[in-house]
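Course assignment 3, question 2. Fill in each field.
Student: A.L.
Task: Predict the tertiary structure for the chain below.
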Amino acid sequence: MKQLLLQLEHIKNNALHMDDLKRRHNLFAYASRSLLWIACLFLIFTISQQVRAEGKIVKWKDANGVTHYGDKLPADAAGRSNSEINKTGVTVKKNEAYNEKTDSGEVERTNTSQSRRDSALLASYGSIDEIDLARDRNIKSDELALANLNQRLNDTRVTLQKNKEKQEGFLKRKKPVPSNILDDIKYNQAQITKTQAEITAVEKNIAVTMARFASYKARYAELKPNNDKSPVVIEGKKRLADLEAQKVATQTRLNGLLKEALDAKKAGVEQPQRVSFGIQEANEEIARLNLEIMATQAKMKE
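Answer field:
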């Protein structure tokens, strides 16, 4: 009987232990679910804050096909397809992934088009001077039209002033202004407005033409840098002129020193040390200038 009671007590203790384990398991499961809900709520809150701040979120997939959301693409997702979603969940924009074949093809077509334009430019003009002549021919008609319009504007203003003086005369005499004078004033004012608009249009055409030929000249200079009017050649000429001037000045100083040395020799006196050092320095300076001149000339011919 005593042994039976011990077994029953043992069974009871085991049952209590199992109940305790179940309660702990349920408590852990509840805590896990609570933490999961808190994490979800935090994620939703974060995304909602981004949406509220920027009005959109970005959706993309990584290399494994996993969908991600954020306020912008991370560096490792650059170039991937993505879409922008507004705060209501509607996709407002889709951005396609970079396609090496199509995008590189577009670059190639652009380069081909530029090559054709360059070939046409070189075939049309033999020098920058020819580009200047072509520019002048193109704007000559516009310049003539502009001169005529300005003359017309001045004439109309003179006529308007005369009609206003007539109007003023009638008003001073307290007489009604004839309708034909009023009509002429309105017509003159309308003509002035119209002519000013035409002048603006012609001036714009001239500016566009000037800019177009300026771009021709700049590109021509890039394609033919040894052209006499290219920036490289112009700068080279300035540099050469400066070097030549320095060389002439140094040569003049050297000639003076050589004369002093010759005079000292004729007089049978020792050549001053200043003269000896001066002759050596002048010769070295001339040698250096000659090297710079040759280097500048070579650069202009590249």
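Instructor remarks: The helical segments are 2-54, 100-124, 128-172, 179-223, 231-267, 273-301. The chain has a mean pLDDT of 78.
Grade: pending
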